[in-house]
Amino acid sequence: MKLDSEMRLRLVVGLLVVVVIGVFLAGLGFQELGTWTLVVLLLIVILAAVAILVYLRNAREAASGFPLEDERTGALKMRAGYLAFWASMYFCLGMGWIYGIFIEGTAMDFLTVAEMMFVIVAVMGVLYMLVWAAVSRGKGTP
Questions:
Q1: Could you read off the pLDDT of 71-83 as tens digits, one per residue?
Q2: Residue 29, phi-psi category: left (phi > 0), alpha (psi -120 to 50), beta (remainder)
Q3: What are the CA-CA distances from residue 119 to residues 56, 85, 88, 110 (Å)?
Q4: What's the Rg (C-alpha) of the chain?
Q5: Distance from CA of residue 24 to its chain's centroid?
Q6: Which residues make Cβ contacts (< 8 Å) with residue 3, sequence separation at least 6?
Q7: What span, in angstroms and rounded, lies between the C-alpha atoms of 4 and 93?
Q8: Helix extents (H) in 65-135
Q9: How far apart are CA 135 and CA 125, in angstroms?
Q10: 15 pLDDT exceeds 70?
C-alpha cells in the first residue's frame, strides 16, 4: 500500500495530537481540569480518532486503485469551503460588533478569549458541514 503525502500528513497529525494530549494529561494527572478544558480535550481526542479513521479508510481505498473522489466531489468541497469561509467571517464580524457595542465597558461577563476562539472555530466547522450538506444535495452549486 503506497501512501501519498496528504494521507501521510493526516496520519502524522492524528498521531501527534493523540501523543500531545496523552503527555498533557499525564503531566496534569487529571488535576484541576475545568469543564471547558474537559470539553475541549474530549473534542480534540474525537477529532484525532476521526483523523486516524479517515486515514485508514483512505489508505484502504488507495490500495484498491480507484480514485478517492471524483472531480464533482472536489469541486463541491471547494465551493462549500468558500461559502463557509465567508459566512464564518461575517459571524466573527458580528461577534466583534456585539462585544464592542453592547458588552465592552459594561459590567456584563462575556466569554474569555480562549472560549471565544473555541466558539468561533466550532461555528466555522459547523457552518462548513451545513453548507457542504446543502451544496451536495445533487442540485449543483448554489
A1: 888 888 888 889 8
A2: left
A3: 29, 15, 11, 12
A4: 19
A5: 20
A6: 11, 59, 62
A7: 38
A8: 71-97, 113-135
A9: 15
A10: yes
